[in-house]
Design brief:
single chain; alpha+beta; five-stranded antiparallel beta sheet; 20 helices; 53% helix; elongated
Length: 651
Amino acid sequence: MKRKAALFLLAVMVSVSLGAIIVTSLAMYRLASERYAEEIRKIEASLSDRFAVFETMLKDQHDRIVGHMTKVLPDIAAELERTGRSPSDLSVADLDAVTKRYGVQHIYFIDRRHKVFQTNFATDMDLQFPDSDFTRFLDSVFDNNKVMNDGIDISEKTGTLKTYSYFGPPGKDYIIEISTDIRDSLEAGGYGWMGRYFFDELLSDPVRSNPSIRALDIYIMNAAATWSLIHPGQQLDPALARRIQQHGREEIRSDDGRYLTVYSGEPTLAATKPDHPVSAKYVIRKITYDVGLARAAVIQVLLSSLLVLALLMPLVFWIASRQLQKQLLDPLFNLRGEAGAIAQGDLNQTIANTDRRDEIGQLANSFAAMRDAVRKTITDLKDTNLSIGRFVPQAFLTIVGKPSIVEVELGDNKRKNMTILFSDIRNFTTLSEAMTPDENFAFINAYLERMGPVIRDHNGFIDKYIGDAIMALFESADDALEAGIAMLETLDAFNAERRAAGQLPIAIGIGINTGTLMMGTIGEKHRMDGTVISDAVNLASRVEGLTKTYGVKLLVSQYTVESLADPKAYDIRPIDVVVVKGRTHPVTICEVFQRDPAEQRAAKAATRELLQSGVEALVRRDPACARRFFEESLQKLPGDTAAGNLLKKCG
C-alpha cells in the first residue's frame, strides 16, 4: 500500500509539473500568437490607409492624363486627315514619331470589328476583343468626335496599371486608342517621388523594421485576373482570390509550419464611388509572417522548465512522501483495522481520529455513523422480514406447498399447467405525460383497484404488477377467459366514471395463453422472489402485444382454446397464424369478440366456422383448401382483417 501510494504521489507530482509546464508554454505561445496577429492587423490597416492615398493619387493623375488626351487625340486625328494617309499605311516608326510628338505612349487603331489593325505596341497587334460591355463601349465611340475614357485597369499583357483614352474621328471606320502606363506617368509627373515610394519602398519598410515580416504585396482584382501592383505581371491564384473575395480572409501555413501567409481583402474606393476611374473593385493584401520565432521561444521555455523539474523533483518527492505517510497513510491503516472489526460483527468497535478537522476526521466520523446505522439496520431488518409476507400471494404459497412464507426456501418450485393472462393500458406513456406524479399513481391505483377483484373473483391471482400492466395466473382456462371478458366489462364502467368526471376513456389489451410453467423462488440467500418461468408466459406476453397489431381488445392462443371446456360457448374465431418473437413454430391466434357490438358480433360469428376450417387446412399443409375457405369468408364479410391475414398465409 505504501509503495503504491508513493508511486501515485510521484505520478501526480510529475503529471502536475508537466501539466503546468505545458500550460505555461501554451500560454506563452498564445500570447506570442496574439502579438503577431495584432501586428498583422496593424500592417493591414496601414496598407489600407496607404492604398487609399494611392487611389487618390491615381485619380488625380488620371484626371491629368484625361485632360491631356482631350487635347491631343483630336490633333492626332487631324494630322492623319491632313496627310491623307490611312493608319494601315503607317509604320511603327511613324507611330513612334506621332507618340513622341504628342507626348503619349502607345497608340492603337481599332476597326468596327473590334480588332486592333495598327499599333506601335507589337504585342497587341491583331488583338480581337470579344463581345462584351467593353465592345459595346467601343461602339459608342465610333464617329462620336469625342474623347472618351474607360478608366484605369490592369493590362492583361503586361500586368501593369494603365489608363485608356479613345477618340472616334467623324466619318471614319476606326477608333484611335491611347494607353498610358500609370507608373511611368507618375514618375514623369508631379508624383514622381510618391510613385517610387509606393512601388519601391511602401512594402519594404515593414519588412526591414520587423524581423518577423518576411514579405508584403498588394493585388487588385479585375475581370481577367488578380494582379500584383508591386511585381508587374505576377498573378494570384484565381481560386485563392475567389475564396478571399468570398470570405474576406484566408491564412496559409508553409509545409514546415514556420511561415504564415495572411491574405485579406476589401473593396477599393472605386467600389463605393461610381465616378472613381479605377476599374478594379477589390484589393487583396498579402502578409507573410515568420511564426517560428514564437515557437522557438516556447521550446526554450519548455526545455528550461524540464531541466529545473529534473533537478528539484527528488527533493520535493521525499518531503511530500514523508508528509503523506504521517498525515494520510497511517490514519487510513488504523481505520482499515477498525472497519475490519466492524465487518466481523463488532458493532461496538471504537473509531479513532473522529476529533480531526480534516478529511480523515470526516471519514472516521462517517465510519462511526455507518457503524451505528448498521446496528440500527439489522434491528429494523428483523422487523421488516416479518412484514414481507404481506407482499407474497397466498395462492403462490399454496401451489408450491408451503403453509407459511417463513418456510419458503430458495429453489422451492413446482411444475403446473396454468393459464396466464397479461393486460396492458394502451398509450399509457402519452396518458401519463399529461399527469403529475401524484395523479399518475392515483390513476393506476384506481384502475388496479377495479381489476384486482375481477381476477380474484374468477379464481385467479395476480403474480405481479409491471407498471400499468397486470400478470395473473389461473388454474382453469375458462376462469382466465371469463376474467378477461369481465375485465372489459369493468373497464366500460370505469370509463363511464371518467367521462362523467370530464376525463378521457382508456383502452386495454388482454392476451391469454395456456401451458406448463415452473413456479418457484429465485434469487439468492438474502434476496428471493417468487416467479414463474416458462415459454408459455412469454407467449402470453407476446399475444397481449399482438392486440395492438390487430386492433382488438382480447386475444387467446390456440392452446387456451384447446383447454376450454366448451370453446363454442364463447365468441371466438381465429384471426391469424403467426410465429411470435422467440418461437420457431407457428401459433394460431384467436380473437374473443364477446364484447363487440351486436351487429359486428353476428357478422364475425357467421364466418367463424369458415375461418376455423381454413386454419385446420393450413395445419394439414393444404393451402389450396385453406384459400377456398378464407376467400368464401371474405365474400361473406368483405374487408375482414382476420380472413385477409389468414389468406396471406396460403402463399
